[in-house]
Amino acid sequence: MSSSSSSSSRSTPSPNPTPPCAACKYLRKKCLPRCIFAPYFPPDDPNKFINVHKVFGASNITKLLNEISPNQREDAVNSLAFEAEARVKDPVYGCVGAISILQNQVMQLQKELDATNADIMRYSEVVRNGYDHHRLEDEVWRRFDA
User: Fold this and answer.
1) pLDDT digits (tens, 9 = 90+) for 23-76
2) Largest CA distance in the chain
3) Which residues contact 38 (CB under 8 A, 6 or more apart)?
């Protein structure tokens, strides 16, 4: 009797050349070559997807990306990521809260600029009219002390 030795060759799965995108990794899905998330949620920035997912949900992100043209997707994802990060920091107001803070800062800076311009006008008038330097300096310091 001849015994045939059947050598079974074990095929080891070939390693995935690229790691799964942050979305597929977080959702524990296989990241397919045409994954809609992969170009916008790289594996080295998982928080970007996590925040967007917490605020908007993966299915809504998928629907949005499928409904818009490919050349608009990156901007859309960046907008979603910005809003999601703002919502994580400020769940009530999100971006609107940040915008409001910035608007208040702009108004305060505008007031300071107006006051500085008024000072410059007074200084230039003093130079033209030859007022007493010490009197003007006292007036300016009184204004800042008030």
Assistant:
1) 999 999 999 999 999 999 999 999 999 999 999 999 999 999 999 999 999 999
2) 125
3) 21, 23, 24, 31
How far are the Cα atoms of 4, 41, 64, 105 from residue 113, in angstroms, in the given order? 94, 42, 44, 12
Nearest residue to 60 (alpha-carbon basis) of 74, 45, 72, 76 = 76
Category of 52 on φ-ψ map: left (φ > 0), alpha (ψ -120 to 50) or beta: alpha
Question: How far is C-alpha 70 from the geometric centre of its chain's CA atoms?
Answer: 21
DSSP codes joined into one string, 107-145: HHHHHHHHHHHHHHHHHHHHHHHT--HHHHHHHHHHHHH
Between 17 and 10, the more confident residue is: 17
| pTM score, whole prediction | 0.61
Closest CA to 143 of 105, 115, 123: 115
For residues 145 and 47, what is the distance between their CA atoms, to the nearest angstrom? 48
Is residue 81 within 8 A of residue 56, CB to CB? The reply is: no
Give percent above pLDDT 90 in the chain.
66
